[in-house]
Design brief:
292 residues, alpha/beta, Rossmann fold, 16% strand, 11 strands, homodimer, six-stranded parallel β-sheet, globular
Chain lengths: 292, 292
C-alpha cells in the first residue's frame, strides 16, 4: 500500500508555480493576482480562505480579500463582482461558498466573467470541460486528476466508481475520468443516494473516488484487493483531544481499508491540499491568458 | 416485450405542439420560427434537414433553410450566424453537422447565441444541463428521456449502462440519467472503446442506452432478462432490396435481443423521430422565451 501524499505534491506544485511567476516577473510581466470574496464568518470558509491567501503568498501571487458581513445584499455582491470583472489587475477571483440563504449562489456564479472564473463553476467552464475543451477545471476534480497523474496510476480501461453526484466534485470528476485522455479513459460509474447495490458496485472497482460527505462510509468489505482509493470527504467530527474541538474525517474507514489498497489518500493531507493548488494553477493560467 | 413506438410518441408530441402554436397565434403572438443552415450535399444531412423542415410544418412553425455549397468559408458562415443571432423573427436555429473539414465545428457552435441554440450544443447549454439548470437539452438525449417518461419506465435506482461517450449523445444522456429527477436518478455507467469488460457490465444493466454507431454490437448474451434497451444507432448499411440502396441498422441485434427485453426501441422508428421532436420542443421554448 502506498500513501498518496497530497501535501507533498501540493508543495511541489506551488514551488513550480513560484518558479514560473519569478520568471514571468523577470520578463517584466505583471504579478498574478487572485481576489476572494468572503461573506460572513463560517468557520470552514474562514479556514479555506486563509489557506488560499497563504497559498497565494507561497506561489508569489498578489491576493486581495474582500469581506462582507452575512447581511450583505445580493445586489451589493453583484456590484462588487462587476468591479472585479472589469478590474484589469485582477486575473481571477472566487466567491467562497456557501453563501447566506438570501443570496442565490447560482446567480452569483453566473455574474462572474467566465474568463476570471478560476473556481471553474460558471456554466461555460462546466460545459467546456464536459465537451473536452480548454477551460478552468473546477479545483477538487482537477486536484484528483493531478494526483493520479503524479503517481502514474493507470486509469485507462479501469473501472472507476464515483460516490456522489455533486456539481463541484462527483459530476465533474466523473466527466474528467471518462474523457479520452490520460489520466482518464476509465469506465465510470456514478453512485448516489438512489443507488441500490452500492457495496457490490464498489467491490468491483479498480478506483473509488468517494465524495459523499459521509464519514467512514467506504468500509473494508466494499473494497477490492489492490484498489486505488481517493477520499474527498472532509467532515468535521467532534474531537475533545484537539484544541479546535474537532478533526476532519474522510468518507473512507481508512484504518481498515488502507491495508487492502494499492494507493490511498489520507484525510487530511490527501485531496484537500490539491484543491487549493488547482485554484493556484487556474490563477496562473488566467494571468498567462492561456485559456481565454 | 413492449416495442417503444418513437414514431407514435413523436406524432403525438407534434400534435401537442401544433395545438399550443394555434393557441399562441390566436392570442396574437408571433409564429415560432426555426432556421437551419445546410452546408454541402451530404446524403444524411439532406435527409435530416428535410425531416426538420417537414416537422416545422406539422408543428405550425415557420422554417427557413439557408444553403451553402461545401466551399463556403468559415467567416461567411459566421457572418450568417451573426445575422440570425440578431434577427428578431428567428427564435432558434441550427447548423446541420457535420461540416466540411476546413470549418471548425466548435467555432461555429460557439458563434451561435446560446439563447437561440435549439440544438443545445453551446457550452453554456451543456454546462447548464450538467448542473441541472433550465436550458436547451440536446435533441437525442432529450428524446430518450421523453420516451422513458411516456412509457412510465422506472429509472430511479436502476443500473443504466450508456455505450458511447460522444458529446452529442453518450455524455449528455449519462448526465441526464444521473440527475435527481424523473426520469433519471439512475446509477449510470459509461462504457467506451477503452472499456475492458463491456459484456459483463451490460449483462448487469437494467437499462442499456446504445450509442456507439456499431451495427448489431449489443447481442443477446449481453442483455439481462427484462432489460430496457434504447438503441440510438443509425448506421446506413447496404441493402440491394431498397430503392435507396441502404437501410438503417441500430447498435442492437434486434431480432435476438428483443425477446429478452421488457421494452426496446426499433431502428428506425424509435429514437430517431424523437430527436427531431426535441428540436421542435426547444424551438417552441425559444419562441415562448421560456428559458432565456
Amino acid at each position: 500500500m502506498e500513501l498518496i501524499d497530497g501535501k507533498y505534491i501540493a508543495d511541489t506544485i506551488k514551488q513550480e508555480i513560484a518558479e514560473t511567476v519569478k520568471q514571468m516577473m523577470a520578463e517584466g510581466k505583471k504579478q498574478p493576482h487572485l481576489a476572494a470574496i468572503l461573506v460572513g464568518h463560517d468557520g470552514g470558509s474562514e479556514t479555506y480562505v486563509a489557506h488560499k491567501v497563504k497559498a497565494c503568498e507561497q506561489c508569489g501571487f498578489k491576493s486581495t480579500l474582500i469581506r462582507y458581513e452575512a447581511d450583505v445584499t445580493e445586489s451589493e455582491l453583484i456590484e462588487t463582482i462587476e468591479k472585479l470583472n472589469s478590474d484589469t489587475d485582477i486575473d481571477g477571483f472566487i466567491v467562497q461558498l456557501p453563501l447566506p440563504k438570501h443570496i442565490s449562489e447560482q446567480k452569483i456564479i453566473e455574474a462572474i466573467d467566465y474568463r476570471k472564473d478560476v473556481d471553474g463553476f460558471h456554466p461555460i467552464n462546466v460545459g467546456r470541460m464536459s465537451i473536452g475543451l480548454p477551460c478552468y477545471l473546477s479545483a477538487t476534480p482537477a486536484g484528483i486528476i493531478e494526483l493520479l497523474a503524479r503517481y502514474n496510476i493507470n486509469t485507462k480501461g479501469a473501472n472507476c466508481v464515483v460516490l456522489g453526484r455533486s456539481n463541484i466534485v462527483g459530476k465533474p470528476v466523473a466527466s474528467l475520468m471518462m474523457q479520452k485522455h490520460n489520466p482518464g479513459d476509465a469506465t465510470v460509474t456514478v453512485c448516489h443516494s438512489a443507488t441500490k447495490n452500492i457495496k457490490e458496485i464498489c467491490s468491483q472497482a479498480d478506483i473509488i473516488i468517494a465524495a459523499l460527505g459521509s464519514p467512514g462510509f467506504v468500509t473494508e468489505d466494499m473494497v477490492k484487493e489492490g484498489a486505488v482509493i481517493i477520499d474527498v470527504g472532509t467532515t468535521r467530527v467532534p474531537d475533545a483531544t484537539r484544541k479546535s474541538g474537532f478533526r476532519l474525517r474522510g468518507d473512507v474507514d481508512f484504518d481498515n481499508v488502507a491495508p487492502k489498497c494499492s494507493f490511498i489518500t489520507p484525510v487530511p493531507g490527501g485531496v484537500g491540499p490539491m484543491t487549493i493548488v488547482s485554484l493556484m494553477k487556474n490563477t496562473l493560467l488566467a494571468a498567462q491568458h492561456a485559456i481565454y
